[in-house]
Structure formats: structure tokens, C-alpha cells
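During the second year of the project, the team shifted from modelling isolated chains to modelling whole assemblies. The rationale, set out in the original proposal, was that interfaces cannot be judged from single-chain predictions alone. As a representative example for this report, we include one of the complexes processed in the last quarter. Its constituent sequences, exactly as entered into the pipeline, are reproduced here:
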Amino acid sequence: MTTFMALAPLLTVVFGALVVLLLEAFMKRANREPLGYVAALALLAAGFFVIRSWNRDLDYFGGRLVLDRFSLLLIALFVILGLFVLLMGLKYAARQGMNLGEFCGLVLLAVAGLMIMVSSTDWLVVFLGLEVLSVASYALSGLKKTDRTSSEAAAKYFLMGSFAGAFFVFGLALVFGTSGSLDFSTLLAGGVSGAGLAPAGAVGLGLILAALSFKIAIAPFHMWAPDVYEGAPTPVTVFLTVGPKAAGLAVLFRLLVPLLRNEPFAAVFGSALSLMAVLTMFAGNLAALRQRSVKRMLAYSSIAHSGYLIVAVIAGDGPSLVFYLVVYLFMNAGAFSVLAAMSRKGVEYTALDDFAGLGRRYPWLAACLSVFLLSLAGFPPTAGFLAKFYVFSGAVREGHVALAVAAVLASLISVAYYLKVIVFMYMKEDQGEAAIDQENPALYLVIFLCLFGVVQLGLWPGNLLALIRQALSAAF
Amino acid sequence: MLELTLSFLVFGLLAAVMIVINYLLGPRKPNPAREKPFECGSPPLQAGIGPVNIPFFLVALLFLLLDVEIAFFYPLALAFRDRGFGGLAALGTFILVLALGFVYAWKKGIFRWS
Amino acid sequence: MAELFWLIPLIPGASALLLVLFGAKLSRRWVAWQACSAVFLSFLLSSAAFAHLVRLPPGAPGLTKTLFAWISSGPFTSPIAFAFDHLTAVMTLVVTGVGLLIHVYSTAYMAEDRSHARYFAHLNLFTFFMLVLVMASDLVLMFVGWEGVGLCSYLLIGFWFERPAAAKAGMKAFVVNRVGDAAFILGILFLLANVGGSSFSLINKAAGGGLLPSGLMTLVAILLFIGATGKSAQIPLYVWLPDAMEGPTPVSALIHAATMVTAGVYMVCRLSGLYAASGPASTVVAWIGAATALFAAAMALVQNDIKKVLAYSTISQIGYMFLGCGVGAYAAGMFHLVTHAFFKSLLFLAAGSVIHALAGEQDMRRMGGLRKHLPVTFPVFLVGALAISGVPFLSGFFSKDAILTGAFAGGQYALWGAGLLGAVLTAFYMFRLVYMTFYGKERTAMEPGHSIHESPRAMTIPLVILAAFSALAGYVGLPVFFGEKADLFGRYLASSVKSGSPHLAVPTEGLLVLLATASALLGIALAFVFYRRTPALPSRLASRFPGVYRLLVGKYYIDEVYDAVVVRPLVRGAEKVYERFDLKVIDGALNGSAAAAGLAGKGLNFLQSGLVRDYALAFLIGAITFLGFLLL
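Output from the structure prediction step:
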């Protein structure tokens, strides 16, 4: 149904962003936390509209913006992600010298970009969403203005992002030139190349995939990721590791799944993607082994998780992909939340040595982090195990046995570094006195919710899975 | 398809071979004179890249935004009869958002050049 | 009461949760009581369920309880469901029964430890996961328990993490186990993709009904068995178990002797339909088992650490169980598992009592003559040693005999011979231990103030109970010449596992029994000659055959080979990757960019360093490679 209501979630978020930014400019009070509440309210309203639109297949702009169930599901994921990030940032911003108003406004804008990206099958609209997201992310990663690593992250992200954006546009031009249409579905028209596309179209698609891989952080386009993830303020890191990844994978999924059913195409692109998936899993996991900073280690682990997720795309296994993304949101946000809790005014404790003896000093934090890390490592009965299990079993079912074997081996390696943190927390005497400021209720709420999610989805995933199946049954 | 493949192969390989040959054969004896940006001429007085005042960028960005606005005004003026009220409302929203941005920038003190 | 059987795992689980969260605030006494009573309740429930089970008419299915739907992926679903059939009952009783005794023993053994609550929390958690493993009605849930016990084992091996050796041993155990687990999960994935389900009954039915291609069955069976070699410390993944002795001794008794390490055997029995249907896989199981039994027994000959001897002995005895399973005598394998659980945990706990009496001394060369000082420990240890050696009329005799008979009846004479040779070695190293520890001169190096004393009641009573079981447990599975119906255990298990090989004629079997007895006695006699009558003989032999001795003492240098072939390349590979992508590109650029750029000044100018250029280059190369791949 074509109706203006299809824009409601998007407009709410954008409107919220504008309001927050203006309020921030005119606000006299020193305490900026009300801005966070306004932003959260905007996200909640967007969530409300998402629920209202469920099952109604709204669209607008001549079908270029579609709220089908797949996109609604992902938008809901982004809304939750946005809420988590906002809550994490409430106290963090003041402590680490960030402007909370700018932070909230930019998070909302970035969420808007994500929403646009996943709710279209039109290249230009996807690109629009990508750029809205990117510009907001560049600014977000540099919000700690006095911090060198943060500025460095922003600059690197900006330069590399623009570079990737140029690839995207060039690819877009080639695709448009050969297929004469900007919709995903017309790609295969008039193919003569080995992949069943026009040669220039194949090049164009390759360029676009490279740019998307950049956003998802897939090797060999992942080089920016550790620096940016490490340098960005921790709540922003959560956003960057989950948001663009999810949106990029959703686009990839929408684009590739119909194509991968096509034999010559699958033979060429499928094997290329498999190679990249394997490369990503091993590059991320092996590099993570050597890190001495937990934040950087989690950054590399995030790259490795991109690899597992790509496996789901290659297998065309939509439910597993979305389930993994949801689970990844909870466990990753949880782990980073604990990291964000390890801070006080002006200081963040991210080195591995700072975690030594945490089990004795802050038993609850340590226990939560252990659960998140075990989940990231894919340990039963946490949600991370189920997520990996679905993805791998989907891959085996679709006949990608070698890929599944590689994935299992890669996740075998990953256990070593996740476990290292737990070893440090429980089996090392603390050396320094990493005194953390515990006055941070919003952050603890996030940790609790993530913990709840990880346990709940590990034991009772049925409802969510049913929802995801329902969402994907119509579209694909 | 074939010619594209071939061209990729030929030119890519050619470029790679040339770079590699250069790398292998070229002598590397750096000295301060060679590191200079200009090989002949007067010695540089200062670093080639100097600091630029940040407000300059901000104003430039803002100018760019308002400049782009024109690119939307003009087509609408031409198609105004066809689009009618809907077009006007859309453009009005657009201007409103821009105006909000302008107010924000103003309030943030971008125009106070110190 | 029997229908509450699904609470069996949950009670220790709940207790563990309480102890993890609030353990630090509870009194020591309360912690000990809570931990023990949780296991005791589980034991009561297991007994009730077992009583219910034996009253059922033959052929009736066991108890099942579906808690809730858990996984549903495409065509296949897997609920969280517990099942309690004959095979499960055996394992559950062993886990809760032996577990209870070890919990009680621990209350005294660990009484002084500063992390008392953590210890019991982990012990209860282990019991929980072990019971989940045992009672799971499908393979995926079993895997949950499988991973969980691995985690607990890791936590408990590294319990005294202040010792670097303990922390390292824990890590080693975990990593080796993960290697096995990777194979295990692959096996599960293959099964899921081809069977369409993961419940044991479904898998066994599909395998038995010939619905699966035999190549696939063999592949799956071997993958799962690789997982079992990790968990059950078989060749080639046994290396972690000897090091695991760094953990507290009751942990060694519970996890690394009685329960967790036998999980692999249990898994093979559980999937006996699959293994019986795959000849090559069964052959692999049998030969790996036999090889391990011999190999580890040989290594036990030269160890001087009392716990290390027992550790290698455990590896060797589990090899026997796999040997039994591999030749199709699944019931015999399970039988040996049960008796082994009794006598090996007895031996470990008694060794713990010795260590306790000597204030932590584990080296047998500094023991000796303890017979007089430990009036309870010595006789029970002797019972355990006789039982494991296979001296007639003790439990180990019957179970080992059942395995050897199975091998012989299956026509696997080579395997039977290996088992017999292993029996000689077993008796030898066991009595070497007994003579070095309890007989001869006192070689203890105790400081004057400390006298050797017998352990407290809480430690000796479990020892006595276990000794009674070690002596008598064998009578549930008598050989055939005591009558057709004498093998109660085998008949009891017949509904759960594939029934064994054909029966032998009574005279043949009698001969086998005599040979087994003779080999046990031979081993004991040799040990007597070597270590009691002419104690100088071993060192003379060692100097006569230095090569063999060094090979055995050096544990065949397996650890070194692993280190060189597996560990170091991996670590070095990681380092290489790190150097390439991180050190060189990122850090190098960060540090060196200032100098390289020359214009930048004092290194503050990190923004225009060479690194983004390098990233962009990598991006470009990646994109070109990708495009090239697409076009060519």
C-alpha cells in the first residue's frame, strides 16, 4: 500500500535528530542528559511506527522505499541498537569529554541512514542511505575531540569511507549503464559474461560489492576497521560494529540471494565471496590472538564475525543471518558495555592488564563480560552458540561443506583470545588500581538487557525465529 | 568479454612489471637535496603544507549547502505547473531543514570569526 | 518421584548458580552442605528413576521429558528434552553416586582452601553439565553438556591458578578439547544435513535402517570419535590429561577418572547403532583404543609422580573401554566404565589421602613405608590396585574379562592379545606404585614438627564405600560360565545399546579367564621382583636400555612434537599476520610516519601519516584482485 505512513519511522528519527541538535544549541543547562531522553523518545516512537507497520507492506516514492517485513525487522534491530548506544553514552559523554547533544543527534541521523539503506531495492536510495550513515559515522567516531586516537579514527574512517564511496558510485554508473535500471532485480538482463552479466555490469557489481564489503569490514577491505573501532568512543564502536555491518549484509542479502540461485553467477561470485569469507574469518581471528588491548581484540573479533555472517549470505540462509545479527547485537553491545563501564572521568581501561583480577574487584561486571565473551566464542548454551550453529548447519545443508569446515576451524581459534580475557579476570592478581566510577545506571540497564538477550535467545530462541521466518518467507 | 579480460591482463601486467622493474633496478641513494619538493629553484623557506583556519572550512561547507539549494530551486521553477502544491510543500520542507541547519550553525557561533 | 527425573541435572545447576553468585558471602559450612546435598538429592532422584525403570516391562521405552522447544532450523527441530533409559541410568547413578562421595571427600580435602566456595560452585556446575550430557536426548543438547564439562574441567584444572603450571595445564586441556570439539560439531552438522534431526533414536534408526550412505556414516562416526578422543584422552589427543593432574586431587578423581573422560565412551555407546553400522569406524575405534591402552600403560611404567601414574592408567583403561566398544561389545565397555569409575576414583582419592598425609608430596621416590601410618588408606588402596589389575573376584577382573572376551569372540585376536599384554603392564605399574608408596624404607622428607597422619573421617568414609564397590561391583556382570543369566548388566543394557558379539563356548571362555588371571598375576609378580625383592633391578635395567627408558620418561616426546608441528607454526603464523597488518602497516606507520614524511615535525602529525595510504592501497589491491577473479 502506497502511503505517506511508510515514511513515519524515518521521519520520526530525522525529526528527533533535528530537535535534539537545535535544543542542544539553545540549551543553557550544564546537564545535557534530557537531550538523551528526547532522542530515546524519538527512537521509541519510531519503534512504535515499526510495530504499527508490521504486515502492511507500506511503500512510498513509487515503490523505492518499501517497508516489507524484512526491512521492518532490521529497522527494529537498528532502533534497539540506537537505544543501547544512547543509553551507553548518557554518562559516558560527560566523562570522556563528548558533547552529548551532538552525539544523540548524530546517532539518530546514522540510524536514519541505516533505515534508508535496508528499505530499498533501488541503488540510488541505498547509496543515499549509505552516505547519510557514513557522514554521521565519521563525525561520531571523532566526537572525543580532545582525544588523539578518536580524531585519528575519524580522519581515517572519513578518508577510507570516501574512497569506498567513490567505488560504489563508479560501480553504480557501470551497472546503470549496462542494465539501464537502478533496481537490483534487473542486473541479470542481457548477460554475456561468465557470470551471466554484461562484462561492464560484472565490473560494476564487483566495485559495489567491494564498497559494501568495506562497510561490513570484510577482508581485504577491513584494514580501517581495527583502528576506527579502537579509536572511536566505546558507544560509537558498538554502533559501528553492528549497524553498518547489519545494513550492509541486508543489502548484500537482498541483492545476492536471487542472483546466487543463478548457476553461472553463483559459480563466479559465490566462490569469490567464499574466498573472502574464509580470508575474513582467519584474518580477524589470527590478528585478534595477539592483541593486548581488549577493545582492539574485540574490534578484530568483529571482523571475524563478519566472516561468519557472510557464510550465511552465501548459503542464502536468511533466517540464520538475521538471527545471528540480532544475537551479535546483544553479545557485542554487552561486551562493549562492560568495556564502557571500565572507566572513570577522563580514563578508560581497555588494556588486558587492566582486567586482571576483575573477578574479585567487580564480580558482577566480570561475570557479565564472561557470559558475553563465551557467547561470542560460540559456547553452548549461550545465544552465540545457536547463532553459529544455525549458520554453519545452513551452510552444510546447502552444500558449502568446505566453507563450514573453515568456519568451524576459525571459531576454534577464536576461543583462545576470548578465553584469555576470562583468564585475566579470574586467574591473575590485579596489578594496578583500575578504580572505576560505578555511578552509571543507564549503562547497567544496557548490560542487563544484553545479558537477558544472550541468555534468552540461547535457551528460548523459538519466538524470535518464528518471527524471522515469517518475515523472510514472503520476501525470498 | 575477452577484450576486457585481455586489456585487464595486458595493462595490469604491464604496469606491474614496470613498477617491479623500477623497484629492482632503480638505485636508491637518498640525500637531502633529492628529498626537496623542487629539484631546482630556491630552497623551501617553510613546510609545504601550512595550517588553514578551521572556520574557513565550516563557512565553505555552509556555502556549499546553500549553493546546492539553487540546484533544486531551478528545476522546480520550471516544473512548478506540473507539480503543484505537492512540489511546493516538498521544497518548503527542504528549505525548512536547511534553515534549521543555518540557525544551528549560527547559534554555534560559526560566523564569529575570531 | 520417578517422573521428577528431569530435576536430576537441574538441582546441582541451581546450587552452582547460587554458589557462583553468593558463594563469597556464605559460610564454609553452609557451602559444603549445600553442594553435597544438591548432589545427594540428584542421587536420590536417580535411584528412584532407576527403580522405576527396572520395574518396567522389558522393551518398554524409558522416561522422557521435553522441557521446551529449543532449536528449529529449517526442517529440523531439537527440543530441550531429557531422557532416562537404561544406559542413562547407569551413567547417572555413577555420576551422582561417585560424585556425591567425592563432594563429601572434598569437604575435608579442600577445607583449608581460600577459594572454598568457588571450588564447590565449579564442582556443582560440573555435575550439572555432566548430567546434561548424560541425560540429553539428542546430540545437540549433549554437545551443550560436552562443552560445559570441558569448561568446568578447564576451570578446575586451573583452580590453583597462582601456580603457572596449573594455569597452563588448564589452557592446554581446553585447547586440545576444542580441537576435538571442532570435529564433533562438524559431525553433528553432517548428521543434521543428512538425517534431518539430531535425536539419538532418530540417528540410530537411520543408521540401522541403512538410510544413510555408508561413506557418510563412517565420516560422521569418525568425526564424532575424534571429539571423543579429545574428551576421553585417547591417541592422538590424550596429551592434556597427564598435565590436568595439576588440579586438586578430588577433581582428578571426579572429572579426570570417573566421569568426564568417559563421556566419549558413553557417546559411542549412545550411538551404538551408528557405530555398529559402520565397520571401518568401529575398526578405528577398536584400534585406537587398543593402541592407547598399551601406549599409556607403557608410559605409566616410568612415572614417579603418583598422580601421573594414575593419569596414564586412566588413559589406558579408557582405551580398554573403546576397545570393547570397537569390537561391538558395547555393554562390556559400559561395564568397564562403571567398575573403572569406582576403582579409579578410589585410587585417586586414596592417593589424595596419601598426598594429604605427606603435606602435598606427590613424588613416589620420597614416599615408602606408609603402610603403617595410613591404616585405612593402605587397605583400600590395595583393593583398588587389585581391582584394576584384574585379580579374580574383584570388579575389574570381570569387566576387563568381558572386554577381552568380546574381542576374542569377535575374532579380533590381535586386539585381544594387545589387551592381554596391556593387562600385564597394568598390574605391573599398579603394584610398582603400591610397593614404592606403601612398602620399603621410609624416604619421606618431612620437617620434624609434622607427623604423618591418617586423613579425617570425611575422607576415609568415602574411601571405604568406594572400596566396597570396587570389590563387589563386578558381580552384576558375571561371565557366561556362571550361567546364561549371570550377565545381569549386559541383559539390563540390551534395550539401550547394540547387543554384543556371539557367545563363546564355556571351555574357551574359561581358558580366556585363566589367561587374563595369569597375566594379572604375572604383572604383580614382576612388580614384586623389581620393586620389593631386588629394588636395584629397575635402575640396572634403565642403564642397560637407556634409549627405551629415555623414550618412556620423555613421554615419547609427544608434547614436543605437538609443540613443533602444531602450536608453534600457528603462533608464528598469527605473529606473521600481526606483523604484516598491524605492526608494519599500522604501528609502523604511526611511529615512523613522522620521520618518513620529513615535513611533519614532532610526530604529532598522526593524521597525515602513511597509514591511510597503505589502507587505500590494500583496498585497491583487494578490489582489483576481486574484479580480476570475477572476470577471469
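The mean pLDDT of chain A is 88. The CA atoms of residues 175 and 292 of chain A lie 44 Å apart.
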